[in-house]
Amino acid sequence: MEDDVISLSQVFRTLRKHLIMIIVLAFVGVVAAAGVTYFAMTPKYDSSALILVNQKSPADAGQQYNQVQTDLQMINTYKDILTQPVILDQAAADLQKSGQFAGTATDLANALTISNNENSQVVKVTAEATSPYVARDIANAVTRVFKTKVTKIMANAKNVSIISDAKLNKGQVSPRPMINLAVGLLAGLVLGILLAFIRELTDTTVKAPEFITDTVGLPLLGSISDMDARNMQFGHATAASSTATPTLTRRRSNGGTHV
């Protein structure tokens, strides 16, 4: 039972034995991630605009708190309206007229992300596109159309303010090269370690004499030490020279023959 337990020293020994393979696969993972990041993935940029929508302020100051709570509950309604065709059709038409965008209302809906912080009446409209200029223009066009039309859609939504127009942001939001390279490195390391243990577990060679005597139950007849090719050649040359029979060589010179 104890032989089936893998010790920590065996783990390190396995990793050290297959270290070159692990390093190579980690390098391959980084190269693959870099190739996908820089050659296969399209850079994306985003830009955000902020809008604030309030209903009519009540004349009674004591009702203002209740009015704020009502406004907070209406945020989800405003978020839904922002992604509806009543807003996006007009925004797409305005962008197409200016030559800033060639897509449809569906494309705008896919490019938009509407969010707000908890207990906040500020709605954040974020547009994502392959160009930072297009992302900025989409966010601004949608918020401007919303400001114009929401007061007609909802009678009480009279106080619509664009707190912040979308600004040009040239920093890409995806892909993120450092994160992708780290993922590629990690994937290569995991794959290398996994293959190292698979090769070790599927290796059926006898690694210790105890396996013959204790596990198999056969007598040990003998063992052969490991020798590299250099030692084997040297040993063969030494043995050959030690067992060789001396021979006589005749040299002929002007002074006669010498043995």
Automatic annotation (TrEMBL):
Keywords for this entry? Capsule biogenesis/degradation, Cell membrane, Exopolysaccharide synthesis, Membrane, Transmembrane, Transmembrane helix
Tell me the InterPro entries matching this sequence: Bact_polysacc_biosynth/exp (IPR050445), GNVR (IPR032807), LPS_length_determ_N (IPR003856)
Q: Name the pathway.
A: Capsule biogenesis; capsule polysaccharide biosynthesis
Primary localization: membrane
| Limits of the Polysaccharide chain length determinant N-terminal domain | 6-95
Q: Where is the composition biased (Low complexity)?
A: 238-248
Residues spanning the membrane: 20-41, 178-198
Where found, per UniProt?
Cell membrane
Does this entry carry the keyword Membrane?
yes
Membrane topology category: Multi-pass membrane protein
Assigned protein family:
Belongs to the CpsC/CapA family.
Purpose:
Required for CpsD phosphorylation. Involved in the regulation of capsular polysaccharide biosynthesis. May be part of a complex that directs the coordinated polymerization and export to the cell surface of the capsular polysaccharide.
- Recorded protein name is Capsular polysaccharide biosynthesis protein CpsC
